[in-house]
Amino acid sequence: MPAGAVTFDAGQTLVELDTAMLAARLAERGLDVAAAALDAAWPAAWRHHEAEVGRGARHPWRQLMAALLAGAGVPAAALDATVAWLWDQQATRNLWRRDVPGMRALVADLAAAGVPLAVVSNSEGHLAALLAELGWARWFVAIADSGVLGVAKPDPGIFAWAGARLGVAADAIVHVGDSRAADVVGARAAGLRAIWFGADATPLDDPGVVAARDAAATRAALAAWGLPCGAPGDPGR
Ligand SMILES: [Mg+2]
Question: How far is the CA of 43 from the centre of ligand 1 (A)?
Answer without folding.
Answer: 13
